[in-house]
Structures are given as structure tokens and as C-alpha cells.
Amino acid sequence: MPNHPARRPPERNAALCRLWILTTALIAVCLLTPLCAGPVHAEPVELTVGVERIDYPPYGSFRQGDYEGYARDLLDSFAIEYGYTMVYVPLPVKRLYQEFLETGTLDLKFPDSPDWQQTRRKGLHIAYSAPACSYTDGILVRPENLGKGMGAIRTLGILAGFKPWLLNPPIDPKTIKVSENASISGLLGKGLVGRVDGVYANVEAARHLLSAMGRPDQLVLDPGLPHMTGYYRLSTIKRPLVMREFDRFLKTRSALVDSLRRKHGLDR
């Protein structure tokens, strides 16, 4: 039987073969890409985040003009994955509410809660994230006054812009004199020297700052006094899609979020 040389496929068939191989490869890449990956933007989309201009470790603090802490690490991690650039806008608490709820100059606010400033939120379509971390607010007293009850609290120190009336059981503002301070460190200082009978503050932030001041355990939470536990959330009026993406991030990157909480001592 004569030997015939092998036939070469026509050029058209070769082109179709290459097209088939390329298409198959693209499909494989798409199938291997995680479904939870964020959108790819041609350039990072800038988001303004309103944050409280107070030293509030481990949640958020300012060191030499730079915002740092758990909130910064969490939001930056989300931004990297979803193609955003976070621009942190530090504002006093009262002005932060104004810029976010009334002026509308901010894309996002952290921390936030639907329980805060409820009257000012009426009629606004605010989207809140799933919990980013938990918190406990309560009244800290000097150890020798622990367990004496609300009758021993004549003057209560609070941060300017914060209201202690959400505590449980509620505090009657008519029976308690309030002394405001612009910084939590200054507020704790008043409590340490007895200028106020109790300090209304976030327990974890107070613990961090007292340790930094070299005065650990010289103000302690009195569990018998009104207190409240809740969750810090991210919120938005202008960017509901971002809020859905952030919720997806919290869920799909739970191991990363847990590691950030441990890093900043918020896993207790």
C-alpha cells in the first residue's frame, strides 16, 4: 500500500482550532476566579469617610495627622479588594452628624448606629452595614466608689456630642449634672482627680487610654450602673451599593476580619 504524506488542515480549520483553545482558556479563568471578588475599576473610586476627630483607641485615633486603628485597617482592607480609595475626613462629633445627615458631603460614616440621634434620622434613607465590631458604653468610677449606685453620681463626665440617655436603665437628665469634654483623655483625667463622679465612655477605649497614661484600673466600669452594649456599623446615604459590597466583604473575609479584631484587642 503506498504511503501518503499526512494532510495539513486547511488554514480556516487551524484558525477555528486556535479560537476554540482561546475560548476554553478564558472560560477556565472565569470559573477559577472567586465569585466574591470585588469589581475591577479602571481607576480606584474615591470614597469620603466621615470619622470622629477624637482619640478613640483601638477603634480609631489620630497620630501625627494620620488616621489609624481597627476601623482604618478594616476599611482599607475592604477598599483594596473592591477597588476603592478611602479618604478619611475627621470631624468633631456634632459637625460629623451635620455633614453626614444634613449637608450630605460624605459618602460614608464610621462608626454609626440607627440608635444614635434618631430624631435627626427621620425621613432619611440610611443604609447600615452588618456589625463591624461590638462595643460597651458605661460609667466608669474610681475603685473606692464601685457599687455605690447612681445616688453617688452627681456630676457625670461625657464627651462633647455624646448623649448618655440611651443607657439602660435610662438616666434622667434632670437629676444628673453633665460635664462635657472634647477629648476622652481629658474626660478620664477629670474622673481620676474627682472633678466628676463618673465618666461615661466606651469601656475598651477607656482601658487603652488609661494604660497609656500609666493609670490602669484607676477607673473601672461599674456593672451595677446603667450601661449599654451594641455594634458599630458603617453607614451611607449616597452609596447603598458600597454597603452591600461591605457586607459581602465581612462575610467572605471573616477570617481576615477576626484577625484584625485580635490585632486591636477587640476579640474579648
Report on the structure:
It comes from Pseudodesulfovibrio karagichevae. This is Substrate-binding periplasmic protein. This protein has 268 residues and is α/β, with parallel strands linked by helices. It folds into two domains: 45-134 and 230-263, Periplasmic binding protein-like II (D-Maltodextrin-Binding Protein, domain 2), CATH 3.40.190; 135-229, Periplasmic binding protein-like II (D-Maltodextrin-Binding Protein, domain 2, 3-Layer(aba) Sandwich), CATH 3.40.190.10. Helix content is 35%, strand content 24%. The protein has eight helices and twelve strands. It has helices spanning 11-32, 70-82, 93-103, 118-121, 184-193, 203-212, 240-252, 254-263; strands spanning 45-52, 61-63, 66-68, 84-91, 108-112, 127-128, 133-141, 155-159, 177-181, 198-202, 220-221, 228-236. Strands 1, 4, 5, 6, 7, 8, 9, 10, 11 and 12 form a ten-stranded mixed beta sheet that branches. A two-stranded antiparallel ribbon has the order 2-3. The chain starts with 10 loop residues before the first helix and ends in a 5-residue tail after the last helix.
